[in-house]
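Query structure, 166 tokens:
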């Protein structure tokens, strides 16, 4: 199995284990639940030489934090519940999940053009693609960045630095 695939699998397995342990612990506290999470995390950290990990589990409104290792190899500063990590490509999964949820609620259609939501894009190449094209990288023929020169109307609420409000 490819190293990245294995890492992703192990990470998902850790998240699943932590969630499962948290749910079981919420119904009937088990003294070994923290040990199970710790064993799973340390195993993956050792195998892939990961310096630090933070896991947050929310179950029945209660938050549990698990912090392991260091945030920086240079400073040896410990990982805490406030340590910031790069999210990486996981944000694509969140975006797709929220977009399909919004479609299920009838708030948008993945078949719509982005110009429906950002009128400033009307008449441009952006008005000829769909949201699903953008989400699946099948729009084709576009630069690799957002058109920074584009001005946004007051209806447009996209956060900086993507669009500069007028």
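Result returned for the query:
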């Amino acid at each position: 199995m490819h190293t990245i695939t294995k890492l992703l699998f192990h990470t998902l397995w850790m998240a699943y284990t932590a969630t499962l342990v948290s749910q079981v612990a919420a119904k009937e506290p088990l003294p070994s639940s923290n040990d199970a999470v710790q064993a799973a995390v340390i195993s993956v950290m050792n195998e892939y030489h990961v310096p630090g990990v933070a896991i947050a589990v929310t179950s029945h409104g209660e938050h549990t934090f698990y912090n392991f290792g260091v945030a920086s190899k240079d400073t040896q500063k410990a990982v805490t519940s406030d340590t910031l990590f790069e999210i990486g490509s996981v944000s694509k999964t969140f975006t797709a999940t929220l977009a399909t949820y919004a479609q299920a609620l009838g708030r948008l259609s993945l078949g719509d053009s982005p110009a429906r939501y950002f009128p400033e894009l009307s008449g441009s190449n952006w008005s000829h693609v769909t949201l699903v094209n953008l989400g699946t990288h099948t729009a084709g023929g576009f630069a690799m960045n957002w058109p920074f020169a584009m001005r946004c109307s007051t209806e447009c609420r996209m956060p900086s630095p993507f669009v500069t409000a007028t």
